[in-house]
Structure formats: structure tokens, C-alpha cells
Amino acid sequence: MSALFTEFNGVAFKNPVICASGTFNFGEEFKRFFPLSRLGGISLKGLTLEKREGNDSPRIAEVYGGIINSVGLQNPGLEGFLKDYLPSLAQEDTVLIANIAGNTVEEYCEMAQRLSQTDISIIELNISCPNVKKGGLAFGVEPKGIESIVFAVKKHCKKPLMVKLTPNVAAISDNALAAEAGGADSISLINTIRAMAIDAKTRRPVLACITGGLSGRAVKPIALRMVYECYKAVKIPIIGLGGIFNAEDAVEFMLAGATAVQIGTANMINPMAAVEVIDGLERFCYDNNIKNIKEIVGGLII
Ligand code: SIN
Fold this sequence. Notes:
TIM Barrel, 8-stranded parallel barrel, 4-stranded antiparallel sheet, binds succinic acid
């Protein structure tokens, strides 16, 4: 068996490398670079019940060490996804994760219910998008709110439920515990960190929405710290993301407690990033005589 084979929430992954929601769209654009079957999984672009055009442009600002996005969940809506994207995605030999966002608890529940009847393997509850007025962070900041939305959605969700946490909070481990108490099967973290960019020449904000979410290399130490804190707090699997660009970064997240990792902003700079992380992890196992990558999860020496 491959040294990278892993499993969590009853789902088998050929490797622990998943492309992160919002950085990989529905995979189509990446097929000319590598077969999607190389990936452990894909967390698909965040879906809402109705189609969304997203926020006004400019909605991406390049900054030192990363990008700030205020995309605003542009997506074809649940119907459009089921009709135009899922049939071909379902032919791919990789784990499909649907990332869902709603304006109301009822919308989250409806999407979870409908996606539970499809080829999607895991549903990732996005209660951490900083770029929408309704939904997003409104549900994801307070532990009580997290527990109650997870509890409500769980009743309608027949697939494993992964909850994506925001880092824009005082104590991430309290929120991880709340997700676990609500019935989450796993958690993913971190989503982006609220940030802004200013153009000194024009004296204006770079983004039309003024603020957005920072991702990329700059956030990695923060994400690592948060994965480490959550690993000490909860028993459910943790999927780590935030500035992972190579296999060494992935190993660091796994040592901090991540069962699997997601590759996000790196995909936008190097479309082969996820495959390079997979190849690098394979070499890492071989060089260190590791039979299975699971051996290193939580293996940080203090
Ligand atoms: C966006 O589409 O605004 C980004 C998604 C997210 O932050 O969850």
C-alpha cells in the first residue's frame, strides 16, 4: 500500500493532499497540467443555493507574502453545479468535497441534504468566508453559533461534515470544540485572515470592497499555531491549510496535528503545486523510512 494512503471520516484518500476551495475552481483549468486523479481530493469552489456573481472588482490584491481576495463566493449555484459540473467531476478518481455557504441556516441545511444524494464524498461547511454580508462569518465566530449551525446541518447531512473555521477569532480551540460538540466529523482550518491593501499613490483601498481575506505564505505560521491548538483540544480529524507551498510545509502541518492538508494560494502561482507536494511527501517517507504518512500526525516533539 502507498505510504501516502490515508483515511478519515470513513473516506479513503490515495494521499493526504487536497486542493483548497476557491483556489481550484471545479478542477477544469488544471486538467491540462496533470490528471486530477493524482490528488487526494478537491474541495470545490464554495457553493451557494442560488448563483452568485461575486463582489465588484478589483477583488484580488497581491501583497507581500500572499494575496487578499474579496471574491464574494462567485459560483454557479447548487443547480448549476449539479447539472454542469458534477457529472464530469464524478468521473475523476479523487475525493470530491463540496464547500457550502448559505445566507441562512435553512439554506445550509437544504444544500447539505441535496448534496448528500450525490457523488460528493464530504461536505465542507463554510462558516468562515469574510467577504459576504450574510452568512459566512455571521455563523462562524461565536462558539454557540457554530455549535448550533453544525447541529442543525448535521441532521440533514448524510455525508461526513467538515467544518471550515475562521482564524478571525480570539480562541480558535473554543470554536473547534464547538464544531465538535455540534457533531462535526472533521474541521478544516484556516480560512483567510481579514486584511486590507491601500494604494499610496491614489490614496484608495486596492479592493472595491475595501477589505478581504489574506492567504498565502504570510499566514502559514498563524495557521500552524492554530492547527496545533486545535489538535490539543479536539478528537476529530483536522485538515490544515494556510500557506502550504511544498512538502516541507505539509509535513510541518501534519506534525502540528493535521491528518491531511489543503493547498490553496500556491495553486494560483504554480498549477503543479499540489502534485509537487504529493511527490515531495512520497520522497519524505522514503528518505525517513516512514511506512505511512499517518505516523507523523501530531508527532511534534516539545
Ligand atoms: C470568496 O469567494 O469570497 C472566498 C471564499 C471564502 O473565503 O470562503
